[in-house]
Amino acid sequence: MDSIINLQKKIVPELTDLLVQRYQILRQVSHEAPIGRRALAARLGLSERVLRAQVDFLKKSGLLDFSSSGMSVTDEGADILKELADYVRKLQDISFLESTLSDTLKIGKVVILPGDSDQEDVVKREIGRTAAHILSKLLSDGNKHIVAVSGGGSTMAAMAANVSGSQPNTVVVPARGGLGDNVELQANTIATVLAQKLGASYRQLYVPDCVSEDILNSILKEDIGVRAVVDIIKQADILVHGVGRASVMARHRRLGSEVIAKLEADGAVGEAFGQYCALDGRQVYMTNNAGLMLQDLQHIGTIIGIAGGKSKAAAILSVIRASRQDILITDEAAAHEILKMAKEQ
To answer: How far apart are CA 328 and CA 143, in angstroms?
Structure first.
């Protein structure tokens, strides 16, 4: 197949662009069906005239179905979409990009999805769906597992929504607490959804974020329930986490203006588990909270980081340099930007 792809790129490169475009149309419709032509054109950044020609072709080919409520992918279209996914990866040299990024970052496994999460929400969902598949496979070994999740947002939510299986012996927990903090409250919600999809049990952790060390120690000492959940979190053998941009996460956590200014001065670009990291991997600030910290990651069997978008490249690189990662699931735009940054340094 590789030789055929190479010939195609050299002899009819325009065919490659057309195939990728039709793949993107099918992928977008499959995620948002039923969807109208105008909305689909806006999602893909195409003119309605260009889109009309492509969707008409896909309809005539039996891959798209039109109704009064919008377009949807036919059963044949869904089958073609699955087969196209691997072909498109080869067309865009995704496998080579994965191995290059894996070697550069010294990560055992890197999975890259075509596209840019900053431009296409569907790519975020694809990252989440891929993470769900990998997690389900890890949990299918018949052993007991404690799964910790950290970070909110649509990518982590997509991961939880797409997990499947029956894992009654698995316990799902948020990696950190956070009362009154929307981002960390999402981690509790994601843990709940993930557990329900797996038929697993779950624990929730509600501890005020960014409290003083004395108050945090007092909570852990006096609240037996909180302490019990923290003990379970510390025993997690699988961690799935998102990565945030330092400036964005600092505002979400309502850090003071002096702290935010210090983060900027110290070069913080990425955040995970309340730890703020510079591009070279230095930990420049951390918030007080119960749950996992970067130094706890060495005790976890498998760590899966999921994040995409060119805008998050620096954040992803900083967190990877600051901690051990086993699997990174990201997108093409972030991967190219990370490699560019690594090369410049």
So the answer is: 23
